[in-house]
């Protein structure tokens, strides 16, 4: 068990700003806040790039939040984001393909994006675990790892089924071990929830209320 400290927790956080009504000025403020709080990165929509104050690593989402974009569009979006300064890409799989058992489509989707943004760009694969069965989560994790993903990620934070759960993170950790990272996101609004996700195996956390969580309060939002 890893005992979190404010410094350790902040170093694991992708400080997230993905509101559909967000402005460029707000994205710049989020980047400045991420740096001030010691977060690992700021996570924004690709339309917010480039940021003029990139004093932390930049994560951009891809195919977000539905995952229902053609793989070629996801790949182009990811590649454009990297050209505009993104260090990491969080892509959403076609959750419907996983639900219907079309894991070949899931594989092609991830592989297409990975080919478009090879290392050293970090690729995280969002599974939307609250919408999947345990078996589907395991299969998607195995596929993501085999395609060269650097992380598997629980959730967009926008699905009505919910966000990260301890059970999902434990299952993901059991599947991928320590070979690739695990990002828990969606509904992590206080210190206890963050600690629980890390105890379950999360190595990165997606938080929008980063400062409130670090202060031991309860945050609202993503």
From TrEMBL:
Which Gene Ontology terms describe the biological processes this protein takes part in?
2-deoxyribose 1-phosphate catabolic process; carbohydrate catabolic process; deoxyribonucleotide catabolic process
Presence of keyword Cytoplasm:
yes
Q: In which pathway does it act?
A: Carbohydrate degradation; 2-deoxy-D-ribose 1-phosphate degradation; D-glyceraldehyde 3-phosphate and acetaldehyde from 2-deoxy-alpha-D-ribose 1-phosphate: step 2/2
| Xref: Pfam families | DeoC (PF01791)
Native organism: Arthrobacter alpinus
Family annotation (CDD domains): DeoC
Location of the active site: 90 (proton donor/acceptor), 153 (schiff-base intermediate with acetaldehyde), 183 (proton donor/acceptor)
GO cellular component terms listed in the entry, alphabetical order = cytoplasm
Per its database record, what is this protein's job?
Catalyzes a reversible aldol reaction between acetaldehyde and D-glyceraldehyde 3-phosphate to generate 2-deoxy-D-ribose 5-phosphate.
Write down the chemical reaction(s) this protein catalyses: 2-deoxy-D-ribose 5-phosphate = D-glyceraldehyde 3-phosphate + acetaldehyde
**Which locations, inside or outside the cell, does it occupy?**
Cytoplasm
**Protein's name in the database:** Deoxyribose-phosphate aldolase
* The family this protein is said to belong to: Belongs to the DeoC/FbaB aldolase family. DeoC type 1 subfamily.
The alphabetized UniProt keywords are: Cytoplasm, Lyase, Schiff base
Q: What is its EC number?
A: 4.1.2.4
From the Swiss-Prot or TrEMBL record, what is one GO molecular function term? Answer: deoxyribose-phosphate aldolase activity
């Amino acid at each position: 068990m890893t005992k979190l400290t404010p410094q350790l927790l902040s170093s694991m956080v992708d400080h997230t700003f993905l509101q559909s009504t967000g402005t460029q000025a707000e994205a710049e403020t989020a980047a400045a806040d991420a740096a001030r709080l010691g977060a690992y990165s700021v996570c924004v929509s690709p339309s917010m790039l480039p940021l003029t104050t990139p004093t932390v690593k930049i994560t951009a989402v891809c195919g977000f939040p539905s995952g229902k974009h053609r793989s070629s569009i996801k790949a182009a979006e990811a590649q454009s984001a990297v050209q505009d300064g993104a260090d990491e890409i969080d892509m959403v799989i076609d959750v419907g393909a996983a639900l219907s058992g079309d894991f070949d489509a899931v594989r092609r989707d991830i592989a297409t994006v990975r080919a478009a943004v090879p290392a050293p760009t970090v690729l995280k694969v969002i599974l939307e675990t609250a919408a999947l069965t345990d078996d589907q989560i395991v299969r998607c994790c195995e596929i993501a790892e085999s395609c060269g993903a650097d992380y598997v990620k629980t959730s967009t934070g926008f699905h009505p089924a919910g966000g990260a759960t301890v059970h999902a993170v434990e299952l993901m950790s059991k599947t991928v071990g320590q070979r690739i990272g695990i990002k828990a996101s969606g509904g992590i609004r206080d210190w206890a929830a963050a600690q629980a996700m890390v105890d379950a195996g999360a190595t990165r956390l997606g938080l929008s209320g980063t400062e409130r969580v670090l202060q031991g309060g309860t945050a609202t939002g993503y």
